[in-house]
Amino acid sequence: MSVKEILSELTDRFNRAGIEEAKADARILTAFALNKTPVFLRMNPDFEITPDQWRTLQGYAERRIKREPVSKIIQTRGFWRLDFKVTKDVLDPRADSETLIEEALKIFKDRTVALNILDLGTGTGCLAQALLCEFVHAHAVGLDNSSQALAIAVENAATNGLKDRFKVVCADWNQEGWERNLGRFDLIISNPPYIPETQKSALEPEVVLFDPPQALFAGSDGLDAYRKIAPSLSGLMKEQAVFITEFGKDQHQSVRQIICSAGLKFNAFGTDLAGTIRCLSAFR
Asked: What's the CA gap between 213 and 280, in Å, rounded?
């Protein structure tokens, strides 16, 4: 079969399965199975694939029809200017989370400043490593309660040439004393779990079936992580340090109240590309 025929067939199958980005997903998975780029597929629609490549691609297609995300199949997701390995053990980086990086860049305008950064719930390491990419003299600590996630974050740091400036700590903010011995930081950034348990049934299968639940859900109102993190922030922050955190739709005022009640001074909200208030920044 030719690339053109394969893309047509896969797109049709994905459409029948209710997959929104059927054409794009078909192209990405075909390119991955052939070890080619999507550009190569566009330039060579008559390229014939081998039987082995077809069997490999069929396996990828069946996984996608079962709603496994493309990023989990190819084990790669782009974020900011970097690529990150993703597995079942880590939350997929989302474009909405780039809003946190944008807010940090607004506050710290000098890209040469030697920031000491803490990423709470680091997962893939995408937030911390995106910041290290921008602040070339900065160092970061990625904290997570999953040793599997931390292994992925360390691997991503090595792949992205950041292993000398990115370290990890395994700790759980649900346990007393989790913040001890971490030191103090110029910037703390976090994308904690914030989905209410009651909203689980409304989530897309790609999320609820393939992202780790501990990275998604945080109690009945989705605010449990902020309540756990907030009391420890002042002790982790240097004078005039900044805290930036992500949250879900319509949670901004509740998160602001929790953070300010812990003694921080609200600075600003940040909006994502859809115009949704996605993060806030606060100072010590």
From this structure: 24
